Model the fold of this input.
Amino acid sequence: MSHNAESTAFRSALEVIRAVEPRVADAIGAELTDQRESLKLIASENYASPATLLAMGNWFSDKYAEGTVGRRFYAGCQNVDTVEALAAEHARELFGAAHAYVQPHSGIDANLVAFWAVLADRVESPALKKAQVRQVNDLSEADWFALRRELGNQRMLGMSLDAGGHLTHGFRPNISGKMFDQRSYGTDPATGLIDYDRVAEAAREFKPLILVGGYSAYPRKVNFRILREIADSVGATFMVDMAHFAGLVAGKVFTGDFDPVPHAHIVTTTTHKSLRGPRGGMVLCQPELADQVDRGCPMVLGGPLPHVMAAKAVALAEARRPDFADYAQRIVDNAQALAEGLLRRGAKLVTGGTDNHLVLIDVSGYGLTGRQAEQALLDSGIVTNRNSVPQDPNGAWYTSGIRIGTPALTTRGLGTAEMDQTAELIHTVLTQTTAGANADGTPSKAKYTLDADLADKIARQATDLLAPYPLYPAIDLA
Ligand code: DSN
Done:
Protein backbone atom coordinates (compact mmCIF):
# COMPACT_ATOMS: atom_id res chain seq x y z
CA MET A 1 0.00 0.00 0.00
CA SER A 2 1.41 3.39 -0.90
CA HIS A 3 1.75 6.27 1.51
CA ASN A 4 -0.23 8.19 -1.01
CA ALA A 5 -3.28 6.01 -0.35
CA GLU A 6 -3.42 7.10 3.32
CA SER A 7 -3.12 10.75 2.41
CA THR A 8 -5.75 10.48 -0.29
CA ALA A 9 -8.12 8.63 2.04
CA PHE A 10 -8.03 11.23 4.82
CA ARG A 11 -7.98 14.23 2.46
CA SER A 12 -10.98 12.91 0.60
CA ALA A 13 -12.83 12.15 3.84
CA LEU A 14 -12.27 15.71 5.05
CA GLU A 15 -13.41 17.12 1.72
CA VAL A 16 -16.68 15.19 2.03
CA ILE A 17 -17.19 16.32 5.64
CA ARG A 18 -16.27 19.92 4.81
CA ALA A 19 -19.04 20.08 2.23
CA VAL A 20 -21.60 19.52 5.05
CA GLU A 21 -20.12 21.13 8.16
CA PRO A 22 -16.75 22.77 7.55
CA ARG A 23 -16.20 23.46 11.25
CA VAL A 24 -16.08 19.74 11.96
CA ALA A 25 -13.57 19.20 9.15
CA ASP A 26 -11.50 22.07 10.55
CA ALA A 27 -11.60 20.61 14.07
CA ILE A 28 -10.47 17.22 12.79
CA GLY A 29 -7.59 18.88 10.95
CA ALA A 30 -6.70 21.00 13.99
CA GLU A 31 -6.66 17.90 16.19
CA LEU A 32 -4.06 16.31 13.92
CA THR A 33 -1.92 19.46 14.15
CA ASP A 34 -2.23 19.54 17.96
CA GLN A 35 -1.37 15.87 18.30
CA ARG A 36 1.58 16.29 15.95
CA GLU A 37 3.01 19.22 17.87
CA SER A 38 2.58 18.18 21.50
CA LEU A 39 4.64 15.81 23.55
CA LYS A 40 1.88 13.35 24.45
CA LEU A 41 2.73 11.60 27.70
CA ILE A 42 -0.75 10.57 28.76
CA ALA A 43 -0.22 6.96 29.83
CA SER A 44 -3.64 5.83 28.60
CA GLU A 45 -3.43 7.31 25.09
CA ASN A 46 -1.78 6.21 21.88
CA TYR A 47 -1.99 6.73 18.10
CA ALA A 48 -4.01 4.09 16.26
CA SER A 49 -2.88 3.10 12.77
CA PRO A 50 -4.48 4.69 9.68
CA ALA A 51 -6.01 1.28 8.86
CA THR A 52 -7.60 1.11 12.31
CA LEU A 53 -8.92 4.67 12.02
CA LEU A 54 -10.33 4.12 8.55
CA ALA A 55 -12.07 0.89 9.57
CA MET A 56 -14.27 3.05 11.83
CA GLY A 57 -15.33 5.61 9.25
CA ASN A 58 -17.90 3.71 7.21
CA TRP A 59 -21.39 2.23 6.93
CA PHE A 60 -20.83 -0.44 9.57
CA SER A 61 -21.74 2.47 11.82
CA ASP A 62 -25.31 2.21 10.53
CA LYS A 63 -25.96 -1.35 11.69
CA TYR A 64 -27.75 -2.60 14.77
CA ALA A 65 -26.40 -5.99 15.81
CA GLU A 66 -27.65 -6.86 19.29
CA GLY A 67 -26.97 -10.47 20.15
CA THR A 68 -23.87 -12.46 19.28
CA VAL A 69 -22.31 -13.88 16.13
CA GLY A 70 -24.89 -15.98 14.30
CA ARG A 71 -27.57 -15.18 16.88
CA ARG A 72 -28.74 -11.62 16.36
CA PHE A 73 -31.94 -9.79 17.20
CA TYR A 74 -31.78 -8.07 13.76
CA ALA A 75 -31.66 -9.45 10.26
CA GLY A 76 -28.86 -8.64 7.85
CA CYS A 77 -25.91 -8.94 10.23
CA GLN A 78 -23.81 -11.32 8.14
CA ASN A 79 -21.01 -8.80 7.59
CA VAL A 80 -21.06 -7.69 11.23
CA ASP A 81 -20.74 -11.39 12.11
CA THR A 82 -17.62 -11.53 9.94
CA VAL A 83 -15.85 -8.65 11.70
CA GLU A 84 -16.97 -9.56 15.21
CA ALA A 85 -15.82 -13.17 14.71
CA LEU A 86 -12.51 -11.96 13.31
CA ALA A 87 -11.90 -9.57 16.20
CA ALA A 88 -12.72 -12.32 18.72
CA GLU A 89 -10.49 -14.84 16.93
CA HIS A 90 -7.55 -12.41 16.84
CA ALA A 91 -8.10 -11.63 20.53
CA ARG A 92 -8.18 -15.31 21.53
CA GLU A 93 -5.06 -16.09 19.52
CA LEU A 94 -3.16 -13.01 20.65
CA PHE A 95 -3.81 -13.52 24.35
CA GLY A 96 -4.22 -17.31 24.45
CA ALA A 97 -7.74 -16.86 25.83
CA ALA A 98 -10.51 -19.44 25.77
CA HIS A 99 -13.20 -16.88 24.98
CA ALA A 100 -13.27 -13.24 23.82
CA TYR A 101 -16.19 -10.80 23.81
CA VAL A 102 -15.38 -7.74 21.74
CA GLN A 103 -18.59 -5.69 22.06
CA PRO A 104 -17.89 -3.45 25.10
CA HIS A 105 -17.67 0.21 24.14
CA SER A 106 -15.10 1.09 26.80
CA GLY A 107 -13.18 -0.29 29.74
CA ILE A 108 -15.94 0.70 32.13
CA ASP A 109 -18.42 -1.22 30.01
CA ALA A 110 -16.12 -4.24 29.88
CA ASN A 111 -15.92 -4.20 33.68
CA LEU A 112 -19.71 -3.98 33.97
CA VAL A 113 -20.06 -7.00 31.69
CA ALA A 114 -17.56 -8.87 33.86
CA PHE A 115 -19.27 -7.92 37.13
CA TRP A 116 -22.61 -9.04 35.81
CA ALA A 117 -21.16 -12.31 34.51
CA VAL A 118 -19.55 -13.10 37.86
CA LEU A 119 -22.69 -12.21 39.84
CA ALA A 120 -24.82 -14.32 37.54
CA ASP A 121 -22.37 -17.20 37.68
CA ARG A 122 -21.59 -17.17 41.37
CA VAL A 123 -24.56 -15.95 43.33
CA GLU A 124 -26.99 -18.69 44.26
CA SER A 125 -30.19 -16.96 43.29
CA PRO A 126 -33.34 -18.64 42.04
CA ALA A 127 -34.68 -15.20 41.10
CA LEU A 128 -31.59 -14.51 39.03
CA LYS A 129 -32.00 -17.73 37.12
CA LYS A 130 -35.43 -16.52 36.05
CA ALA A 131 -34.10 -13.08 35.24
CA GLN A 132 -31.86 -14.24 32.42
CA VAL A 133 -32.82 -12.54 29.21
CA ARG A 134 -35.08 -15.19 27.80
CA GLN A 135 -37.28 -15.32 30.90
CA VAL A 136 -37.22 -11.73 31.99
CA ASN A 137 -40.87 -11.19 31.16
CA ASP A 138 -41.88 -14.03 33.47
CA LEU A 139 -40.59 -12.33 36.63
CA SER A 140 -43.14 -11.43 39.26
CA GLU A 141 -42.79 -8.43 41.58
CA ALA A 142 -41.71 -10.83 44.32
CA ASP A 143 -39.02 -12.20 42.01
CA TRP A 144 -37.70 -8.70 41.39
CA PHE A 145 -37.46 -8.00 45.12
CA ALA A 146 -35.71 -11.31 45.65
CA LEU A 147 -33.33 -10.59 42.82
CA ARG A 148 -32.27 -7.27 44.31
CA ARG A 149 -31.87 -8.82 47.76
CA GLU A 150 -29.91 -11.81 46.52
CA LEU A 151 -27.53 -9.86 44.31
CA GLY A 152 -27.02 -6.88 46.59
CA ASN A 153 -24.20 -6.36 49.00
CA GLN A 154 -21.78 -8.76 47.36
CA ARG A 155 -18.15 -8.11 48.22
CA MET A 156 -15.31 -6.89 46.05
CA LEU A 157 -11.66 -6.47 47.00
CA GLY A 158 -9.57 -4.28 44.67
CA MET A 159 -6.60 -1.97 44.69
CA SER A 160 -7.19 1.37 46.40
CA LEU A 161 -7.58 4.41 44.21
CA ASP A 162 -4.64 6.31 45.61
CA ALA A 163 -2.38 3.27 45.21
CA GLY A 164 -3.28 3.19 41.51
CA GLY A 165 -6.54 1.24 41.37
CA HIS A 166 -9.38 2.28 39.08
CA LEU A 167 -12.71 3.93 39.86
CA THR A 168 -14.59 0.95 38.44
CA HIS A 169 -13.04 -1.40 40.98
CA GLY A 170 -15.72 -0.64 43.53
CA PHE A 171 -15.41 3.08 44.20
CA ARG A 172 -18.33 5.34 44.95
CA PRO A 173 -18.23 7.66 41.91
CA ASN A 174 -18.79 4.55 39.77
CA ILE A 175 -21.78 2.20 39.86
CA SER A 176 -19.47 -0.62 41.00
CA GLY A 177 -19.17 1.18 44.33
CA LYS A 178 -22.93 1.05 44.69
CA MET A 179 -23.31 -2.53 43.44
CA PHE A 180 -20.62 -3.95 45.71
CA ASP A 181 -19.59 -3.73 49.29
CA GLN A 182 -15.97 -2.80 48.59
CA ARG A 183 -12.73 -3.00 50.46
CA SER A 184 -9.36 -2.14 49.01
CA TYR A 185 -5.77 -3.19 49.37
CA GLY A 186 -3.08 -0.52 49.22
CA THR A 187 0.65 -0.59 48.83
CA ASP A 188 3.49 -0.76 51.33
CA PRO A 189 4.12 2.84 52.50
CA ALA A 190 7.88 2.28 52.53
CA THR A 191 8.28 0.77 49.05
CA GLY A 192 5.07 1.74 47.25
CA LEU A 193 4.77 -1.91 46.15
CA ILE A 194 1.82 -4.29 46.57
CA ASP A 195 2.29 -6.32 49.74
CA TYR A 196 0.80 -9.69 48.80
CA ASP A 197 0.71 -10.86 52.43
CA ARG A 198 -1.51 -7.87 53.24
CA VAL A 199 -3.75 -8.66 50.27
CA ALA A 200 -4.07 -12.25 51.51
CA GLU A 201 -4.90 -11.00 55.00
CA ALA A 202 -7.56 -8.62 53.66
CA ALA A 203 -9.03 -11.42 51.55
CA ARG A 204 -9.18 -13.76 54.55
CA GLU A 205 -10.96 -11.14 56.65
CA PHE A 206 -13.30 -9.80 53.99
CA LYS A 207 -14.03 -12.94 51.94
CA PRO A 208 -14.79 -11.16 48.66
CA LEU A 209 -16.86 -12.65 45.87
CA ILE A 210 -14.47 -10.94 43.43
CA LEU A 211 -10.78 -10.19 43.88
CA VAL A 212 -9.73 -7.54 41.35
CA GLY A 213 -6.17 -7.18 40.07
CA GLY A 214 -5.03 -4.41 37.74
CA TYR A 215 -4.54 -0.69 37.92
CA SER A 216 -4.43 2.58 36.08
CA ALA A 217 -1.55 4.22 37.93
CA TYR A 218 0.77 1.57 39.43
CA PRO A 219 4.20 1.60 37.80
CA ARG A 220 5.18 -1.99 38.54
CA LYS A 221 4.50 -5.55 37.44
CA VAL A 222 1.82 -7.44 39.34
CA ASN A 223 2.20 -11.13 40.19
CA PHE A 224 -1.09 -12.57 39.02
CA ARG A 225 -0.18 -16.13 40.04
CA ILE A 226 -0.02 -15.03 43.67
CA LEU A 227 -3.27 -13.07 43.41
CA ARG A 228 -4.99 -16.13 41.90
CA GLU A 229 -3.75 -18.25 44.81
CA ILE A 230 -5.17 -15.69 47.22
CA ALA A 231 -8.50 -15.69 45.35
CA ASP A 232 -8.63 -19.49 45.42
CA SER A 233 -7.85 -19.60 49.13
CA VAL A 234 -11.04 -17.64 49.90
CA GLY A 235 -13.21 -18.93 47.07
CA ALA A 236 -13.20 -15.62 45.17
CA THR A 237 -13.44 -15.15 41.43
CA PHE A 238 -10.23 -13.56 40.21
CA MET A 239 -10.76 -10.71 37.75
CA VAL A 240 -7.99 -8.66 36.17
CA ASP A 241 -8.46 -5.28 34.50
CA MET A 242 -5.48 -5.08 32.14
CA ALA A 243 -6.67 -1.96 30.32
CA HIS A 244 -3.38 -0.16 30.82
CA PHE A 245 -0.93 -2.93 30.09
CA ALA A 246 -2.76 -5.09 27.53
CA GLY A 247 -0.17 -4.09 24.92
CA LEU A 248 2.62 -5.38 27.15
CA VAL A 249 0.76 -8.69 27.54
CA ALA A 250 0.09 -8.86 23.79
CA GLY A 251 3.74 -8.08 23.06
CA LYS A 252 4.92 -10.79 25.49
CA VAL A 253 6.76 -8.37 27.73
CA PHE A 254 4.60 -9.56 30.60
CA THR A 255 4.71 -13.36 30.63
CA GLY A 256 4.47 -16.17 33.21
CA ASP A 257 3.30 -14.89 36.57
CA PHE A 258 2.83 -11.40 35.09
CA ASP A 259 0.49 -12.41 32.28
CA PRO A 260 -3.04 -12.26 33.75
CA VAL A 261 -4.77 -14.37 31.10
CA PRO A 262 -3.73 -17.86 32.28
CA HIS A 263 -4.32 -16.94 35.93
CA ALA A 264 -7.58 -14.98 35.98
CA HIS A 265 -11.10 -16.32 35.59
CA ILE A 266 -11.97 -13.16 33.70
CA VAL A 267 -9.89 -10.36 32.18
CA THR A 268 -11.12 -6.99 30.96
CA THR A 269 -9.31 -4.41 28.90
CA THR A 270 -9.61 -1.35 26.77
CA THR A 271 -8.34 -1.62 23.22
CA HIS A 272 -6.93 1.87 22.77
CA LYS A 273 -4.16 2.26 25.35
CA SER A 274 -0.90 0.30 25.04
CA LEU A 275 -2.78 -2.12 22.74
CA ARG A 276 -3.02 0.75 20.19
CA GLY A 277 -6.44 -0.03 18.76
CA PRO A 278 -9.68 1.95 18.49
CA ARG A 279 -11.35 3.35 21.60
CA GLY A 280 -13.25 0.42 23.07
CA GLY A 281 -13.29 -2.51 25.47
CA MET A 282 -13.08 -6.27 25.50
CA VAL A 283 -13.57 -9.20 27.88
CA LEU A 284 -11.56 -12.44 27.89
CA CYS A 285 -12.69 -15.30 30.08
CA GLN A 286 -12.60 -18.94 31.01
CA PRO A 287 -15.18 -21.15 29.25
CA GLU A 288 -17.49 -21.37 32.28
CA LEU A 289 -18.12 -17.61 32.19
CA ALA A 290 -18.52 -17.31 28.41
CA ASP A 291 -22.28 -17.66 28.31
CA GLN A 292 -22.84 -14.91 30.89
CA VAL A 293 -20.23 -12.63 29.30
CA ASP A 294 -21.96 -12.96 25.93
CA ARG A 295 -25.13 -11.57 27.54
CA GLY A 296 -23.32 -8.23 27.98
CA CYS A 297 -25.60 -6.65 25.37
CA PRO A 298 -28.41 -5.97 26.18
CA MET A 299 -27.83 -6.80 29.88
CA VAL A 300 -25.54 -3.84 30.56
CA LEU A 301 -24.47 -2.58 27.12
CA GLY A 302 -26.19 -0.63 24.38
CA GLY A 303 -26.08 -2.01 20.86
CA PRO A 304 -22.64 -3.08 19.68
CA LEU A 305 -20.67 -0.73 17.44
CA PRO A 306 -19.82 -2.78 14.34
CA HIS A 307 -17.50 -0.13 12.91
CA VAL A 308 -15.46 -0.22 16.12
CA MET A 309 -15.45 -4.03 16.14
CA ALA A 310 -14.08 -3.86 12.57
CA ALA A 311 -11.34 -1.55 13.82
CA LYS A 312 -10.66 -3.89 16.75
CA ALA A 313 -10.16 -6.73 14.26
CA VAL A 314 -7.66 -4.62 12.31
CA ALA A 315 -5.73 -3.47 15.40
CA LEU A 316 -5.64 -6.96 16.92
CA ALA A 317 -4.33 -8.33 13.62
CA GLU A 318 -1.59 -5.67 13.82
CA ALA A 319 -0.79 -6.67 17.39
CA ARG A 320 -0.26 -10.27 16.25
CA ARG A 321 2.56 -9.21 13.94
CA PRO A 322 6.13 -9.79 15.18
CA ASP A 323 6.96 -6.06 15.21
CA PHE A 324 4.36 -5.47 17.93
CA ALA A 325 6.54 -7.37 20.43
CA ASP A 326 9.39 -5.02 19.58
CA TYR A 327 7.07 -2.03 20.07
CA ALA A 328 5.93 -3.35 23.47
CA GLN A 329 9.51 -3.82 24.65
CA ARG A 330 10.42 -0.32 23.50
CA ILE A 331 7.49 1.11 25.51
CA VAL A 332 9.05 -0.31 28.69
CA ASP A 333 12.63 0.63 27.70
CA ASN A 334 11.44 4.19 27.14
CA ALA A 335 9.54 4.36 30.43
CA GLN A 336 12.61 3.15 32.28
CA ALA A 337 14.83 5.67 30.48
CA LEU A 338 12.37 8.43 31.35
CA ALA A 339 12.30 7.31 35.00
CA GLU A 340 16.08 7.16 35.18
CA GLY A 341 16.40 10.60 33.58
CA LEU A 342 13.99 12.07 36.12
CA LEU A 343 15.61 10.32 39.09
CA ARG A 344 19.06 11.48 38.02
CA ARG A 345 17.78 15.05 38.00
CA GLY A 346 16.32 14.68 41.49
CA ALA A 347 12.65 13.85 40.90
CA LYS A 348 10.77 11.75 43.43
CA LEU A 349 9.04 8.77 41.78
CA VAL A 350 6.44 6.49 43.35
CA THR A 351 8.15 3.08 43.87
CA GLY A 352 11.43 4.66 42.72
CA GLY A 353 10.99 3.69 39.06
CA THR A 354 8.93 1.57 36.70
CA ASP A 355 8.75 -1.80 35.04
CA ASN A 356 5.78 -1.06 32.81
CA HIS A 357 4.70 1.81 30.55
CA LEU A 358 4.12 4.49 33.18
CA VAL A 359 5.95 6.66 35.67
CA LEU A 360 4.31 8.42 38.60
CA ILE A 361 6.12 11.60 39.70
CA ASP A 362 5.42 12.79 43.24
CA VAL A 363 5.49 16.52 42.49
CA SER A 364 5.34 17.49 46.15
CA GLY A 365 9.11 17.16 45.79
CA TYR A 366 8.92 20.28 43.58
CA GLY A 367 6.59 22.06 46.02
CA LEU A 368 3.63 21.70 43.65
CA THR A 369 0.28 19.98 43.50
CA GLY A 370 -0.51 17.68 40.61
CA ARG A 371 -2.89 20.27 39.22
CA GLN A 372 -0.27 23.03 39.19
CA ALA A 373 2.30 20.71 37.62
CA GLU A 374 -0.15 19.44 34.97
CA GLN A 375 -1.05 22.97 33.87
CA ALA A 376 2.54 24.25 33.87
CA LEU A 377 3.59 21.29 31.73
CA LEU A 378 0.65 21.90 29.38
CA ASP A 379 1.73 25.55 29.00
CA SER A 380 5.07 24.11 27.87
CA GLY A 381 3.64 21.78 25.22
CA ILE A 382 3.84 18.65 27.40
CA VAL A 383 0.53 16.82 27.82
CA THR A 384 0.20 14.72 31.00
CA ASN A 385 -2.44 14.14 33.64
CA ARG A 386 -2.44 14.66 37.35
CA ASN A 387 -2.94 11.61 39.52
CA SER A 388 -3.11 10.74 43.20
CA VAL A 389 -0.10 9.20 44.85
CA PRO A 390 -0.39 6.72 47.75
CA GLN A 391 -1.77 8.42 50.88
CA ASP A 392 -2.19 11.60 48.86
CA PRO A 393 -2.79 14.64 51.13
CA ASN A 394 -4.28 16.63 48.23
CA GLY A 395 -7.12 14.27 47.34
CA ALA A 396 -8.25 13.14 43.90
CA TRP A 397 -8.91 16.61 42.42
CA TYR A 398 -5.67 18.50 43.11
CA THR A 399 -3.48 15.44 43.77
CA SER A 400 0.26 15.32 44.40
CA GLY A 401 1.25 13.33 41.34
CA ILE A 402 1.77 13.51 37.61
CA ARG A 403 1.30 10.30 35.66
CA ILE A 404 3.31 9.99 32.48
CA GLY A 405 3.46 7.12 30.01
CA THR A 406 5.36 6.17 26.89
CA PRO A 407 2.99 4.19 24.56
CA ALA A 408 2.24 7.20 22.34
CA LEU A 409 5.75 8.61 21.97
CA THR A 410 7.07 5.09 21.36
CA THR A 411 4.58 4.73 18.50
CA ARG A 412 6.08 7.87 16.95
CA GLY A 413 9.51 6.27 17.16
CA LEU A 414 11.15 8.24 19.97
CA GLY A 415 13.75 6.20 21.85
CA THR A 416 15.68 6.21 25.10
CA ALA A 417 17.88 9.21 24.13
CA GLU A 418 14.77 11.32 23.52
CA MET A 419 13.34 10.11 26.84
CA ASP A 420 16.31 11.57 28.64
CA GLN A 421 15.71 14.88 26.85
CA THR A 422 12.03 14.64 27.78
CA ALA A 423 13.04 14.16 31.42
CA GLU A 424 15.14 17.32 31.15
CA LEU A 425 12.19 19.32 29.78
CA ILE A 426 9.82 18.05 32.50
CA HIS A 427 12.33 18.67 35.26
CA THR A 428 13.04 22.20 34.00
CA VAL A 429 9.35 23.11 33.91
CA LEU A 430 8.70 21.69 37.37
CA THR A 431 11.71 23.34 38.99
CA GLN A 432 10.83 26.70 37.41
CA THR A 433 7.16 26.61 38.43
CA THR A 434 6.20 28.24 41.71
CA ALA A 435 3.05 27.49 43.68
CA GLY A 436 0.73 30.52 43.90
CA ALA A 437 -1.39 32.00 46.68
CA ASN A 438 -5.09 32.81 47.10
CA ALA A 439 -6.28 36.41 47.47
CA ASP A 440 -6.19 36.03 51.27
CA GLY A 441 -2.57 34.90 51.18
CA THR A 442 -3.22 31.21 51.86
CA PRO A 443 -1.44 28.70 49.60
CA SER A 444 -3.40 27.85 46.46
CA LYS A 445 -3.53 24.30 45.16
CA ALA A 446 -4.31 25.49 41.63
CA LYS A 447 -2.48 28.77 41.02
CA TYR A 448 1.12 28.83 39.90
CA THR A 449 3.61 31.02 38.13
CA LEU A 450 5.84 30.01 35.27
CA ASP A 451 7.67 32.49 33.10
CA ALA A 452 5.83 32.62 29.75
CA ASP A 453 9.04 32.92 27.73
CA LEU A 454 10.44 29.84 29.41
CA ALA A 455 7.21 27.92 28.73
CA ASP A 456 7.40 28.95 25.04
CA LYS A 457 11.04 27.93 24.87
CA ILE A 458 10.28 24.49 26.32
CA ALA A 459 7.35 24.07 23.92
CA ARG A 460 9.70 24.82 20.99
CA GLN A 461 12.22 22.33 22.34
CA ALA A 462 9.45 19.73 22.64
CA THR A 463 8.47 20.35 19.00
CA ASP A 464 12.13 20.06 17.95
CA LEU A 465 12.39 16.77 19.83
CA LEU A 466 9.38 15.45 17.92
CA ALA A 467 10.42 16.77 14.50
CA PRO A 468 12.45 13.71 13.42
CA TYR A 469 9.48 11.48 14.34
CA PRO A 470 6.48 12.86 12.46
CA LEU A 471 3.07 11.57 13.43
CA TYR A 472 1.29 9.86 10.54
CA PRO A 473 4.11 10.86 8.18
CA ALA A 474 2.19 9.68 5.13
CA ILE A 475 -0.76 11.92 5.82
CA ASP A 476 -0.61 15.39 4.30
CA LEU A 477 -3.83 17.37 4.70
CA ALA A 478 -2.47 20.59 3.22
N1 DSN B 1 -9.16 7.08 31.74
C1 DSN B 1 -8.28 5.94 31.85
C2 DSN B 1 -6.93 6.35 32.30
O1 DSN B 1 -6.53 7.44 31.94
O2 DSN B 1 -6.26 5.58 32.96
C3 DSN B 1 -8.83 4.91 32.73
O3 DSN B 1 -10.20 4.99 32.81
